[in-house]
Amino acid sequence: MFQITLAEHVRLSFGSALAAYEGHAEAAATLARRSSYARLALLGISGLAAVAGSVAVPGGYGWQLTSAILSVVVFAGCAVYVGLNQHLLIHGHRTSAAKLWVICEKYRALLAEMHEELIDLPALQNRRNALLTEYAEVIELAAPDDRYTYEIAKAALSGPRGDGYPDTLIDRYLPHAMRKQAPAS
């Protein structure tokens, strides 16, 4: 029969919160990077359109056509950029990551108290339940609805590769004294 200790349950819940934190932080960074690249590309194309437009006045039909095409490309690019509205997704992932980091810190504190045997069983159960509730609220209310969130939730529920949470993932965020595995030399 499947059995898990309360300490292992807290550790696995911590791993789930860490996976969600890392996923939201990475999604926010990726979306912000892509948004910056898109803005730079739009700026560059609009600069080319402006130059082509100023040359097109005395330059003839070829320059006028080039200027018109670049203007259409700039408008289409701006329409796509505004239509995708990535800023709300970036903000949602950043907010989720920030809230999840606070929850991860609370889990670390709980694990430290467990390690030092400073907490009794009823208090441990109450704090674990409170953290699980807080974690569920963040996931339910703060996370944006996009493909990144789906992948993050999938990884948070089953581990990064679908086979649970390796101790190395959790140990990266814990002090040496609380790690399960010795650091690789």
Walk me through what this model shows.
There is one protein chain. With 185 residues, this protein is mainly alpha-helical. The protein has one domain (13-173). 79% of the residues lie in helices and 0% in strands. It contains 6 helices and no strands. It has helices at residues 6-59, 61-84, 86-115, 121-141, 147-158, 167-171. Helix 1 (6-59) packs antiparallel against helix 2 and helix 1 (6-59) packs parallel to helix 4. The longest helix has 54 residues, at 6-59. The model has no long low-confidence stretch (mean pLDDT 84).
- β-strand percent reads under 5%
Order of helices and strands: HHHHHH
Class of secondary structure makeup: mainly alpha
Count of individual beta strands: 0
Distance between the amino and carboxyl termini: 36 Å
Mean pLDDT: 84
| Percent range of helical residues | over 70%
Low-confidence stretches: none
- Number of helical segments? 6
Kindly give the count of domains: 1
Main sheet record: none
General shape: rod-shaped
Radius of gyration, Cα only, in angstroms? Answer: 25 Å
Helices and strands, with pairings:
Elements: H1 6-59, H2 61-84, H3 86-115, H4 121-141, H5 147-158, H6 167-171
Helix pairs in contact: 1-2, 1-3, 1-4, 1-5, 3-4
